[in-house]
Write a structure and sequence with these properties.
The complex is a heterodimer of chains A (177) and B (598).
Chain A lengths: L13 E11 L4 H11 L6 E8 L4 E11 H12 L4 E6 L7 E11 L2 H14 L2 E5 L3 E8 L1 H12 L3 E12 L7
Antiparallel strand pairs in A: 1-3, 1-4, 2-3, 5-7, 5-8, 6-7
Chain B lengths: L4 H9 L2 E3 H11 L4 E4 L6 H8 L5 E4 L3 H15 L3 E5 L3 H15 L4 E7 L15 H5 L5 E4 L6 H13 L5 E7 H5 L1 E3 L19 H12 L4 E5 L1 H6 L1 H14 L3 E3 L14 E4 L6 H9 L2 E5 L5 H4 L10 E6 L13 E4 L2 H13 L11 H11 L15 H12 L4 E5 L3 H9 L8 E2 L10 H11 L4 E7 L9 H7 L5 E6 L4 H10 L15 H8 L2 E5 L5 H10 L4 E6 L28 H4 L2 H4 L3
Parallel strand pairs in B: 2-3, 2-4, 4-5, 5-7, 6-7, 9-10, 9-12, 10-11, 12-13, 13-14, 15-16, 15-17, 17-18, 18-20, 19-20
Antiparallel strand pairs in B: 1-8
Helix pairs in contact in B: 2-3, 2-7, 4-5, 4-18, 9-14, 11-14, 12-15, 16-17, 16-22
The chains are: A alpha+beta (177), B alpha/beta (598).
The complex binds thiamine diphosphate (TPP) and magnesium ion.
Magnesium ion binds next to loops of chain B.
GO biological process, one term (chain A): L-valine biosynthetic process
GO molecular function (chain A): acetolactate synthase activity; acetolactate synthase regulator activity
Pfam family, one (chain A): ACT_AHAS_ss
């Protein structure tokens, strides 16, 4: 509860937003951002970080979060007031952004199950990065729904391990952030 | 080509020195005259560098929490950045409450902490604490300096960040090897941070819309806060001019007292949980609210969905995250109060003369009705000192003097806000956001350091004062004639009041047991103790306190069971507040849901 007086507010509709945040790549910046979300009780569905401009030591953090309109506005304002944050952009504001995620799946099995796993992976356009007589590692890149679908299908084909990168996202069109 | 400023600076700046010397030099270059601190192993090189100079005066406190509160009191009473120096580990963790307090109340503080040598970081070394980790959420920003090349920039940047935009505390954690390392010092430049540039001037179109809305208001009110004080004396001056020109009523938060003169007719007193009847009712019934530098804190709004239901709200704040956080603003203006007020004033003066503004007669008439309730009235007594009476006398006997007031936290704090009259900004220092018992005494020390000739009084409770009592020793050492005015009700009064109103009068652990003899305690520290328990003797005793040029503890024995009213009970709206003479009915007023709230 944000205020000691607030009654649980009538459930306002929530929506999913993808935020791109450009930050100084200095020690502790990720802790600052993650801590902001935990400290203020916001959701993080996915968080992706990497230095994107080495000379300027700038990193791009992509955050997928859900909240009411007011919460999303607060999240953006709170992010923007952190000293090492340069820019915050709500990629979901400007129509659906391009969002991709990469996933690695380890699938273990023999016989028909193994053949079926490979066939399905090929149908999804996944790449095979490693193969043994009893296992595969597949790499799949796609929109979130496709990643989920692929993982769901592999779950029935001997899936034993999943590693996901989190979302990388960019707004459409010529304009840069 | 003519030389740019930074080139000239860098020519004179390539002096080589140790990290510890850089710290002291940077403080000097930032104009720091006073530093509140406590030594220890991890800051010895800095203390050594301090030893060799006398521009920066070090004030030795007795607990690191007090160092930060003293720096806050110094900052709030002077408008400068408060500076703190503490050692690693326990020095830093002791400072955490002070830092959190400064963050909540937006007070500019730079706190330098020592750290174990870089090669020992992470090894659980002696007096190692993850200071940047611990203070990340109780500072505006913090730094761990791992390279001597970064140190001069970080030192200057810290002052810039602490004092620009919404002010706040900044920690610089400096490992001991960096303090010994030699490097090139650089002086401060104009651009103290590569990207942090808070917006100071408000969007002029929004200000225009705000002025138009104000001009059409039938029941307007100004609701101002600590942001006006933080913005500086010019903001307070502009606010006064605007309020006078518009003829609107004005109320203030606890943090904003003094920005507008309390003695002025247009001032309705403080608003909020223990605010005046007239201020809260005016807030509830207004049609246009102009919030300048306040943040719709829950102590102000009461029940949020019943908060000022019929008004359109203008909100001016330097922190964009404050706008629409708790209460939706119809016109949000991001900017520094002084800048925005200047524009508002110009536009207000430029309004076409022929446009008829609604008359405020009816509105002021309504306000007069609320005022007539005389909400701060209390039952006087000639046998026991009423806390309200004590403060009325303190107010009367300090009138016309150069006075600064700090407080601890509890009933006495709220009574001080209600009964002391602040006509100037920077005269009133209290822990608002965090509500830190133990704030007032060290804050008074800071204020007295900034204003050696002034009368500095900590209005205290007998429970709170014990939280940083050790600072009496600091006051004695530095010859600071602060006055600790204890409203001694032998209870954690505010806790007792809630227990009386909400928990069936079961006074669980709220009695101030085994209190020291405050007069003897004052004397033990080398100060002066005065006790008064008789209303007839009070004036003379207060005058004796004022006239004593040494630290004084005044043990004012007051009514034990007095409650602080008006009060907006938990879970209630502004127009459901209760007054002193209605106290017996209060059980019926607060419902079950209200009891769960703090
Ligand atoms: C550090 C800290 N601990 C606990 C509290 C909770 N608290 C608020 S007021 C209060 C009682 C203060 O008693 P006293 O100083 O005697 O003031 P009074 O209310 O009696 O005027 C307490 C315990 C607090 N605000 N700060
Ligand atoms: Mg008390």
């Amino acid at each position: 509860m944000s205020s000691v007086y607030s009654e649980p507010s009538p459930a306002a509709p929530t929506s999913r937003h993808t935020l791109a945040v450009i930050v100084d790549n200095e020690p502790g910046v990720l802790a600052r951002i993650a801590g902001l979300f935990s400290g203020r009780g916001y959701n993080i569905e996915s968080l992706t970080v990497s230095e994107t401009e080495h000379e300027k030591h700038l990193s791009r953090i992509t955050i997928v979060t859900t909240g009411t309109e007011a919460e999303i506005e607060q999240i953006k304002a709170q992010l923007a007031r952190l000293v090492p944050v340069h820019r915050v952009r709500d990629l979901s504001d400007e129509g659906p952004a391009i969002e991709r995620e990469l996933v690695l799946l380890k699938v273990v099995g023999q016989g028909d199950q193994r053949v079926e796993a490979l066939r399905l992976a090929q149908a999804f356009g996944a790449r095979t990065l490693d193969a043994t007589l009893s296992s595969f590692i597949f790499e799949f890149t796609g929109a979130l729904e496709d990643v989920e679908r692929f993982i769901g299908i592999m779950a029935d084909c001997g899936l034993v391990e999943v590693s996901r990168t989190g979302v990388a996202a960019m707004s459409r069109g010529a304009e840069a952030m | 080509m003519s030389k740019t400023k930074s080139e000239t600076v860098s020519e004179t700046a390539n002096e080589t020195m140790s990290g510890a010397e850089m710290v002291v030099r940077a403080l000097q270059d930032q104009g720091v005259e006073h530093l509140f601190g406590y030594p220890g192993g991890a800051v010895l090189p800095i203390y050594d560098a301090l030893f060799h100079q006398d521009t920066v005066r070090h004030i030795l406190v007795r607990h690191e929490q007090a160092a930060v509160h003293a720096a806050e009191g110094y900052a709030r009473s002077s408008g400068k950045v408060g500076c703190v120096l503490v050692t690693s580990g326990p020095g830093a963790t002791n400072a955490v409450t002070g830092l959190t307090d400064a963050l909540m109340d937006s007070i500019p503080v730079v706190c330098i902490t020592g750290q174990v040598p870089t090669q020992l970081i992470g090894s659980d070394a002696f007096q190692e604490a993850d200071t940047v980790g611990i203070t990340r959420h109780c500072t505006k920003h913090n730094y761990l300096v791992k390279r001597i090349e970064d140190l001069p920039r970080v030192l200057h940047e810290a002052f810039y960040v602490a004092s620009h935009g919404r002010p706040g505390p900044v920690v610089i954690d400096i490992p001991k090897d960096i303090q010994f390392a030699k490097g090139a010092y650089a002086r401060p430049t104009d651009n103290q941070h590569k990207t942090y540039r808070p917006v100071v001037s408000g969007d002029i179109e929004r200000i225009r819309a705000a002025v138009a809305l104000m001009a059409s208001a039938k029941r307007p009110i100004f609701y101002t806060g600590g942001g006006v004080i933080n913005s500086g004396p010019e903001a307070a001056r502009l606010l006064r001019e605007l309020v006078r020109l518009t003829g609107f009523p004005i109320t203030s938060t606890l943090m904003g007292l003094g920005a507008y003169p309390a003695s002025d007719q247009q001032f309705l007193g403080m608003l909020g949980m223990h605010g005046t009847y007239e201020a809260n009712h005016a807030m509830h019934d207004c049609d246009v609210m102009i919030n300048i530098g306040a943040r719709f804190d829950d102590r102000i709004t009461g029940r949020i969905d019943a908060f000022s239901p019929g008004s359109r709200k203008i909100h001016i704040d330097i922190d964009p995250s404050s706008i629409n956080k708790n209460v939706k603003a119809d016109i949000g203006i991001v900017g520094d109060c002084a800048h925005v007020l200047e524009d508002m004033l110009r536009l207000w003066k430029g309004l076409p003369q022929d446009v008829e503004k609604p008359s405020l007669k009816g509105w002021w008439g309504k306000i007069a009705g609320w005022r007539a309730r005389n909400c701060l009235a209390y039952r006087p007594s000639d046998t026991v000192i009423k806390p309200q009476y004590a403060l009325e006398r303190l107010q009367a006997l300090t009138e016309g003097r150069d006075t600064y007031i700090t407080t601890e936290v509890g009933q006495h704090q709220m009574w001080a806000a209600q009964f002391l009259k602040f006509d100037e900004p920077n005269r009133w220092m209290t822990s608002g956001g965090l509500g830190t018992m133990g704030y007032g005494l060290p804050a008074a020390i800071g204020a007295q350091i900034a204003h050696p000739e002034a009368l500095v009084i900590d209005v205290a409770g007998e429970a709170s004062i014990l939280m940083n009592m050790q600072e009496m020793s600091t006051a004695l050492q530095h010859r600071l004639p602060i006055k600790v005015f204890i409203l001694n009700n032998e209870y954690m009064g505010m806790v007792r009041q809630w227990q009386e109103l909400l928990h069936g009068g079961r006074y669980s652990e709220s009695y101030s047991h085994s209190l020291p003899d405050f007069v003897k305690l004052a004397e033990a520290y080398g100060g002066v103790g005065i006790r008064c328990d008789n209303p007839a003797d009070l004036d003379a005793a207060i005058l004796e306190m004022i006239d004593t040029p040494r630290p004084v503890i005044f043990d004012c024995i007051v009514d034990k069971m007095e409650n602080c009213f008006p009060m907006i009970p938990s879970g209630k709206a502004h127009n459901e507040m209760i007054l002193g003479d209605a106290a017996e009915d209060i059980g019926a007023i607060i419902d079950e849901k209200g009891k769960a709230l703090v």
